[in-house]
Design goal:
By secondary structure, this protein is α/β, with parallel strands linked by helices. It has 17 helices and 17 strands. It has three domains: about 200 residues, Rossmann fold; about 150 residues, Rossmann fold (3-Layer(aba) Sandwich); about 70 residues, Alpha-Beta Plaits. The strands form three sheets. Strands 3-4-2-5-6-1-7 form a seven-stranded parallel beta sheet, sandwiched between helices. A six-stranded parallel beta sheet has the order 8-13-12-9-11-10, with helices on both faces. The longest helix has 14 residues.
């Protein structure tokens, strides 16, 4: 039986610039969260929505807040709070894409990890939309560099993780500086009691939307393995060697486990990096970048650190330990098996976690598939790419085409040897096929990019 077609964005009364952006960006029908939330969003209602990563929620609240923006008014009119810099950057990028045909609309992203003084110049004229982390937004409010007196829309994105990370006090302090007559939108992958309580405090008669919280079972093969705690390290090695995913995201409950698991895999020869909350922002950014550009095959992370992480083509998700909340597990595995691809979920389950596996089974409606562990066999394959870093970025007017031209022209590499190129404010990163990395490194050091000499280095040890 064929599935009914998704409703079109044309059924909404979007302002012409937003309707044009939707058409140019090639969006098809609305996702479930967009279909159910957007009429309320556009009508000015408060909304509390539960939806997993990749459900299209950013487009939903992005269209909602942009529809209410008045570019003639030089005031902050929309504020989006996010738990991490990575998610804030993604949200800011998406809002700018949607606003491409809205003339003179200003969007600013404000997060920690960079000095406050470097952000102040972009606030001399108030932006219309601000995206940022609670702590940094509160810092700017206390300094008087931003003002929320004209705020129309407040968005709390990934609200459950902001509470997990201890941001409740900062969120409350930000809200105290916002008008009470505003639209408040709360998006969360899970709805624990704390989220319900937060909604009661901040929202007025919100529209409730619960969709797409469970990954489609047909897209993801879920396998559970009964493993004694002391044997989990060897079991993880066996699974990675047996299934050989091109990219694997391993979830741990604690930072200590992240460090220990990553160190154990590195000792066994895996191309692996760790991601946890105690890393500084540059370390976090570079770990995510290398995993995304295939310079690292395995990323070990906590749920909090990986929230907002959306890696295209993620082959497998591995749970070192099942979380107490089954929705958290389903949110984890929702990162694989996207865009019509098959995904793989592997869970190492100690005896004390059996009840958690049963809760996942009930919540997902899919019978748990328990499988025998394979034997350890073979050796890890190296990551296919290596990341080179260039000490120059947007401030030096570097563009991806400049690096691509230098590598394919002056250095003489074939185009298929060059992967993802990322240009930051003061640094640039380029992924090069591992077997061509040394040639690329020597060539860039000996030559010029846009007529200038830049310092070039190989990034890190895993790549």
């Amino acid at each position: 039986m064929s599935q009914p077609a998704s409703p079109s964005f044309a059924t909404l009364q979007l302002p012409p610039p937003l309707a044009r952006a939707i058409q140019v960006l090639g969006f098809g029908g609305m996702t479930p969260v967009q279909e159910h939330a957007l009429p309320g969003l556009l009508g000015g209602r408060d909304v509390i929505a539960q939806a997993r990563t990749g459900s299209g929620k950013t487009v939903a609240f992005g269209l909602g807040l942009l529809a209410r923006a008045d570019v003639e008014s030089d005031r902050v009119q929309a504020l989006v709070l996010c738990p991490t810099r990575e998610l804030a950057d993604q949200v800011g990028t998406e809002v700018r894409r949607l606003a491409r045909f809205v003339p003179n609309l200003r969007v600013v992203t404000l997060c920690g990890g960079v000095p406050v003084r470097t952000q102040t110049p972009s606030l001399q004229v108030a932006p219309h939309v601000v995206v940022g982390t609670p702590g940094r937004i509160l810092d700017h409010l206390q300094r008087g560099t931003i003002d929320l007196a004209g705020l129309r829309v407040l968005v709390l994105d990934e609200a459950d993780r902001m509470l997990d990370m201890g941001f409740l006090e900062a969120i409350s302090a930000v809200v105290e500086r916002a008008p009470t007559a505003r639209q408040t939108l709360l998006f969360s992958a899970t709805w624990p009691d704390e989220i319900r309580s937060l909604s009661r405090r901040l929202q007025r008669d919100p529209l409730e939307v619960t969709v797409d919280t469970v990954a489609p079972a047909g897209d993801i093969e879920q396998l559970f393995f009964d493993v004694a705690p002391a044997q989990k390290g060897e079991a993880l090695v066996a699974l990675l060697l047996h299934y050989r995913p091109e990219t694997a995201l391993v979830f741990c409950q604690t930072r200590n486990d992240v460090r220990d698991v990553a160190a154990g895999l590195a000792e066994r020869g895996f191309s692996v990096l760790a991601l946890h909350g105690e890393m500084d922002q540059r370390e976090r950014d570079e770990a995510l970048l290398r995993f995304a550009n295939r310079s690292c095959a395995v990323l070990v992370a906590t749920d909090v650190a990986a929230r907002g992480l959306d890696i295209k083509g993620l082959s497998a998700v591995v749970s070192w330990e099942l979380p107490p909340d089954p929705d958290v597990h389903l949110h984890r595995i929702g990162r694989t098996g996207r865009a019509g691809e098959k995904g793989l979920s592997l869970a190492l389950v100690a005896p004390r976690e059996i009840e958690r596996a049963a809760a996942v089974e009930v919540r997902s409606g899919v019978p748990a598939s328990w499988t025998a562990l394979p034997a350890v066999n073979g050796t890890p394959a190296p990551a296919p790419m290596t990341t080179l870093t260039i000490d120059g970025g947007r401030q030096d007017k570097l563009r991806p085409g400049d690096l691509l031209g230098a590598l394919t022209g002056d250095v003489g590499l074939p185009g298929d040897a060059i992967g993802k190129i990322d240009i930051m404010a003061r640094r640039a990163y380029v992924a090069v096929r591992r077997d061509r990395a040394e040639t690329a490194l020597r060539g860039l050091r000996a030559g010029r990019i846009k007529g200038r000499t830049f310092r070039v280095a190989r990034l890190g040890g895993a790549g």
